Amino acid sequence: MSKFIIIILITVIRTLGTNNEDDFYSTITPMEALDIVKETYATNFTKVSVEDGLGLYYYKLDKGEYYLVYEDTNDTTGNHLIHLYEFVIDDKDSQIGHTVTYGWYWVDQYSGDIFTLSDNE
Questions:
Q1: Domain range for residue 74?
Q2: Are 30 and 39 in contact (CB under 8 A)?
Q3: Residue 96: inside a domain
Q4: Which DSSP state fits 51?
Q5: Alpha-carbon distance 49 to 83, whole Å?
Q6: Is residue 98 part of a domain?
Q7: What's the structural domain count of the chain?
Q8: Per-residue pLDDT of the chain (121 residues; tens, 9 = 90+)
C-alpha cells in the first residue's frame, strides 16, 4: 500500500511539472509581487532599476510623478505590501512635496492574490 501512495505522489509531482518537493512551498518574492500588482493596476508604468546590484526596481509612469513601489513584507503572514502613489511638488525651488496615495496592495506570498488594504481591515 505504501508503494502505491509513493507512486501516486511521484505522478502528481511530475504532472505539476516539478520533481522538487520544495517547489510546493516556494513563495513569491517582493519583486514578483510588485510585477503582479503592476500587471493589474499599472500596466502603462515603466520599470526603473535601482543601482544597488540587488536586482531591485520600482515602476514609474513616464508622464508624471506616479510610482508603484514595494514597501514591506509582513513578518507574520509573509505577504508583500505594494504602494501606488503620486509625488506632488509643493515648492519648485526646494523640490519639497508630498505624496498622494492611490492604493495599498497586499500580495499573498503563496498564491499571488492581491488584496487592497481595505480588504484586510
A1: 26-120
A2: no
A3: yes
A4: T
A5: 17
A6: yes
A7: 1
A8: 444 344 343 333 333 444 444 555 689 999 999 999 999 999 999 999 998 778 899 999 999 999 999 999 999 999 999 999 999 999 999 999 999 999 999 999 999 999 997 655 4
Q: CB within 8 A of 47, min separation 6: which ones?
A: 57, 58, 59
C-alpha cell at 87: 509625488
Q: Strand (E) positions, the chain?
A: 45-49, 57-61, 66-73, 80-91, 96-107, 114-116
Residue 6, SS3 per DSSP: helix
Which residue type, as a one-letter code, is found at position 18? Answer: T
Give the global pTM. Answer: 0.74
Cell reading at 53:
546590484
